[in-house]
Every structure is written in structure tokens, then in C-alpha cells.
């Protein structure tokens, strides 16, 4: 097999390279053990527009992986990353066309950055490379590489959902974007629904390709290991002590409108109203670090959340009890795993999510003796694989409140049975097996 070339918007920062902290970096380390790999993308640095003219690719090699990065100018960052990727494609792909703030200028910058990436990457490529492009920032990269004369096999994986064509066509130029995906030899998505939607788009624009499903997973063994070994950590003990024996409900999500946080808080309020015997008798910890804080819709979300949490805490709190312990800063992963282990239930209720790895991490962190209950949105990509969770519609506050009540009154034997049934899939489809299946599928395509 040829060299593997990964292209993603962000390349792991230098400090993460020797010991990848999570997600894609870990999945790929597992999948490419020993194999030569080139990872290309944005460095994370912004430069002035003038400096963009003669920017160079920085190259840095750690073991078998060579990292090649380029900087983005301030206007590229604004137009390509914040504007088009996160202000237009992200809401649209999460079925929220109403939150799209479309601008022709941003669309232009998005395509220009994809072309620039292709121009910088092309000279680094060898003829038998397998190229794997990641996510919505880089939809047109395959075509841009073909325009540079690249004939290697190129695959694309979309980490987020893909909406039905009736929604996607709200994007000016949707047909052209869809047609550009023809440049890929393999088009991978998270779920059957996403594949159906992509294929619908393909058939509308007359592309004969078919999307294929490659659900992503986690590294369950190491997460479970972190959950048990972390229990002695003084920070974890501090949380445990503060619970005073009360059950802990936990939520861990980036601060994003796709995660259904205001809806979740309102459902919790319904729970406190409907089941007043639980007031003062549960601890709800929500960890929600601010993300994309300079995109306007995210600022609005933050204010909304501050308001809802303040309302609930003011209305239902007491001298010695806070209904929602709400943190907007990140918590280190080595604490998250034991926090999951300590908790009685997790609320994972996105309005839409490509997969949602927190759901899988929550299952991996439990033990057979006293497993916690997963309350999971039907609209997370993980839901079809996790039918033994308490599946809910996150828009239905009463349903979520009732699921919370059910989780708190569930017998130990039912919790154990549900967990026992959830576990095999989390262990079967891991981050490493996901990457290996994609790479194998790409390697099997005959190069043109
Ligand atoms: P995300 O939208 O970032 O990913 P998710 O799949 O839940 O969502 O992954 C988040 C990761 O960040 C998890 O590993 C989680 O533990 C960690 N994390 C979340 N909140 C944290 C916090 N407060 N502190 C520390 N760590 C935190 C996108 C798509 C998903 C898809 C993934 C992978 O939106 O649907 O599952 O890519 O393809």
C-alpha cells in the first residue's frame, strides 16, 4: 500500500504530536502504525494578508508521520473558516438553514483556500499515495487536486450530518458543490441517513457515485482504563465528596447550538417541576467549554444559556443546593472519564450530531457493578447503534424529563442489562477500526 496522506483543516499542534490527545489523531495513530504518513492542513496560525503572498509550507516529522502545515491570512480565516465553514455549512448540515449567514464573498474565500491547499499539497505528493480528506471545510479539495493533475486515489469523510436535498439546495451553488464531490473515489459518511441524503443529491445532479457508511468510534479500552485509574485523582475525589451521596447527572458538550443545550436545560426544569421530590436530591453537572466564540450565533447561544441557567438556579436553588453546576471552561480528559464513572446518568441530547463520541465514551467509562444510564437523542448519529440507551426526542421536554426520572428510579439489574447490551458495539467499532475500514476501502478502488 502507498503512503497515506491525511488532509484536515487543523493538523495536531506540535505539543500533541508525540502523544495525541484524542479523536482523529489517536484513530490515525492506531490505523497507520508503522506506515508512512503525511498530514497536511492549517497550522492554526493567522498571518496578515500581505504575508499570505509568499507563505511556505512548514514541515516537521515525528516518527512515521510528516506534518505539513500552512498559515491562513486573517481574511482567509474569517471567510473560509468562520464565515463559510462554520457560519454557513455547519448550520446547514445540522438542518438549521435559518442560522446560515450566507455571503458570496465567504463562498469565494472558501474555494480560494481549497485551491491554495491543493496548490501547496500537490508538489508534496507521490503517484501511489492514498489521500484521505476530512470534513466540510474541504468539500471541494478533491476537485482542486484533480485540477492540479493529481491522479492518486482520493477519499473524503464527512464527520457531520448531510441534510436531505430539499434543505441542501438552500445553499447557493449547492449543485456545483455536489458535482465537485465526483472527484472522490470514496465518499464516506457516519450513518445510513447521511448516505441516503448524499445519494439523493448525487442523483439530482447526475453524479453516478454512492456514499458509503463508516461510523466512527473511540478507543474504548484506554477510556475505560482512564475511568478506573482516575478515580483516585484528588480532583475526582473532590467532586465525589461534594455529591454528599446524591446521584450525579452529567452533560459534556462543546458549546454549540447543535448540542441542544437550552432545550436540555428546559427539560431539566420540567423534571424539577414534575418530580419535585428530586429538588435538592440530585446534582446536575454540565461541562460546556465555549467554542467558536467569535461567530455571532455562538455569542447569542452563550447569552441564552447564561439566562436559562440563571433562571433555573435562581428559581429552584436553595441555600445549600444549586440545580445546575455549569462550567464554560474545558475539563482535562483524564478527569472526564472518572467523572463519567462516578455519575448515575448522562444527558447526551443533540438536536443533530454526526455521531457524538461522548455517548460512546460514557458507555466505555462504566463498570459492570454499577453502570450509569445513557439518555441519548434519537438525532445523534450514534443512536441507531445504541438502542439500549434511553432514546429521546430532545425537542420534547416532557420526554427528556421522564427519561431522567426513569434513569434515577431504574433498578440495578436493568442498568446492568442495558449497559451489557450497549458495550459490544462500542468495543467493536473503534477509532482504529473505523480508520482501517476507510483506508482499506480506498486502497481497494482501482486508481484511474
Ligand atoms: P464534535 O462536535 O466535537 O465532533 P463529539 O463527537 O461529541 O463532538 O466529540 C467531542 C470530543 O470532545 C469528545 O471526545 C469529548 O470527550 C470531548 N469533549 C467534549 N466536551 C468536552 C469538555 N468539556 N472538556 C473536554 N473534552 C470535551 C464532530 C462531530 C461529531 C462526531 C465527531 C467525530 O460533530 O458528531 O462524532 O466529529 O467524527
Please outline the helices and strands.
Blueprint: E1 4-10, H1 14-17, H2 23-31, E2 37-47, E3 58-62, E4 65-73, H3 74-93, H4 104-121, E5 130-134, H5 141-147, E6 153-157, H6 165-168, H7 174-180, E7 186-189, H8 192-205, E8 211-213, H9 220-229, H10 234-243, E9 248-252, H11 261-274, E10 283-287, H12 296-316, E11 324-327, H13 333-342, E12 345-348, H14 357-365, E13 373-377, E14 390-392, H15 397-409, H16 412-428, H17 431-444
Parallel strand pairs: 1-2, 1-5, 2-4, 5-6, 6-7, 7-8, 9-10, 9-12, 10-11, 12-13, 13-14
Antiparallel strand pairs: 3-4
Bound molecules: adenosine-5'-diphosphate-glucose.
Adenosine-5'-diphosphate-glucose is lined by residues 22-23, 159-160, 216, 252-254, 287, 289, 330-331, 333, 336, 353-358, 361, 381.
Tell me what the structure shows.
It is a single chain. By secondary structure, the chain is α/β, with parallel strands linked by helices. It is built from 17 helices and 14 strands. It has helices spanning 14-17, 23-31, 74-93, 104-121, 141-147, 165-168, 174-180, 192-205, 220-229, 234-243, 261-274, 296-316, 333-342, 357-365, 397-409, 412-428, 431-444, and strands at residues 4-10, 37-47, 58-62, 65-73, 130-134, 153-157, 186-189, 211-213, 248-252, 283-287, 324-327, 345-348, 373-377, 390-392. The strands form two sheets. The protein has an eight-stranded mixed sheet, with helices on both faces. A six-stranded parallel sheet has the order 11-10-9-12-13-14, sandwiched between helices. The longest helix has 21 residues, at 296-316. It is globular and about 65 Å long. It starts with a strand and ends with a helix. The model has no long low-confidence stretch (mean pLDDT 95). Adenosine-5'-diphosphate-glucose is lined by residues 22-23, 159-160, 216, 252-254, 287, 289, 330-331, 333, 336, 353-358, 361, 381. This is Alpha,alpha-trehalose-phosphate synthase. Belongs to the glycosyltransferase 20 family. Pfam families: Glyco_transf_20. It comes from Acetobacter oryzifermentans.
Amino acid at each position: 500500500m502507498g503512503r497515506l496522506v491525511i488532509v484536515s483543516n487543523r493538523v495536531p499542534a506540535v505539543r500533541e504530536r508525540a502523544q495525541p490527545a484524542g479523536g482523529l489523531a489517536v484513530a490515525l495513530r492506531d490505523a497507520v502504525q508503522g506506515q508512512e504518513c503525511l498530514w497536511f492542513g492549517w497550522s492554526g496560525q493567522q498571518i496578515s494578508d500581505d504575508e499570505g503572498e509568499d507563505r511556505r509550507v512548514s514541515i516537521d516529522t515525528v516518527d512515521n508521520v510528516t506534518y505539513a502545515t500552512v498559515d491562513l491570512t486573517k481574511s482567509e480565516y474569517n471567510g473560509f473558516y468562520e464565515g463559510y465553514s462554520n457560519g454557513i455549512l455547519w448550520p446547514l448540515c445540522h438542518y438549521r438553514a435559518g442560522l446560515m449567514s450566507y455571503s458570496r464573498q465567504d463562498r469565494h474565500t472558501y474555494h480560494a483556500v481549497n485551491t491554495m491547499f491543493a496548490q501547496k499539497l500537490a508538489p508534496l505528493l507521490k503517484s501511489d499515495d492514498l489521500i484521505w480528506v476530512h470534513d466540510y471545510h474541504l468539500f471541494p479539495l478533491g476537485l482542486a487536486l484533480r485540477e492540479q493533475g493529481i491522479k492518486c486515489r482520493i477519499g473524503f469523510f464527512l464527520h457531520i450530518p448531510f441534510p436531505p436535498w430539499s434543505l441542501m439546495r438552500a445553499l447557493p451553488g449547492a449543485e456545483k458543490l455536489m458535482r465537485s464531490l465526483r472527484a472522490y473515489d470514496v465518499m464516506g459518511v457516519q450513518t445510513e441517513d447521511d448516505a441516503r441524503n448524499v445519494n439523493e443529491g448525487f442523483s439530482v445532479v447526475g453524479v453516478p457515485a454512492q456514499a458509503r457508511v463508516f461510523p466512527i468510534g473511540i478507543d474504548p479500552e484506554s477510556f475505560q482504563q482512564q475511568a478506573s485509574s482516575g478515580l483516585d485523582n484528588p480532583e475526582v475525589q473532590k467532586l465525589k465528596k461534594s455529591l454528599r451521596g446524591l446521584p450525579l447527572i452529567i452533560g459534556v458538550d462543546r458549546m454549540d447550538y447543535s448540542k441542544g443545550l437550552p432545550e436540555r436545560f428546559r427539560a431539566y426544569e420540567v423534571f424539577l417541576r414534575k418530580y419535585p421530590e428530586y429538588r435538592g436530591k440530585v446534582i446536575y453537572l454540565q461541562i460546556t467549554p465555549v467554542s467558536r466564540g467569535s461567530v455571532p450565533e455562538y455569542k447569542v447561544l452563550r447569552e441564552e444559556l447564561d439566562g436559562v441557567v440563571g433562571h433555573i438556579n435562581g428559581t429552584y436553588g436553595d441555600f445549600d443546593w444549586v440545580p445546575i453546576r455549569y462550567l464554560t471552561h474545558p475539563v482535562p480528559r483524564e478527569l472526564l472519564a472518572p467523572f463519567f464513572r462516578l455519575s448515575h446518568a448522562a444527558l447526551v441530547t443533540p438536536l443533530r450530531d454526526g455521531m457524538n463520541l461522548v455517548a460512546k465514551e460514557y458507555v466505555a467509562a462504566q463498570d459492570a457493578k454499577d453502570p450509569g444510564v445513557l439518555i441519548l437523542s434519537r438525532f445523534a448519529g450514534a443512536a441507531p447503534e445504541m438502542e439500549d440507551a434511553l432514546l429521546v426526542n430532545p425537542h420534547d421536554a416532557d420526554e427528556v424529563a421522564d427519561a431522567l426520572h426513569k434513569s434515577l428510579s431504574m433498578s440495578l439489574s436493568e442498568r446492568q442489562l442495558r449497559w451489557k447490551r450497549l458495550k459490544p458495539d462500542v468495543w467493536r467499532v473503534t477509532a482504529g477500526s473505523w480508520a482501517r475500514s476507510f483506508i482499506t476501502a480506498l486502497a481497494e478502488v482501482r486508481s484511474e
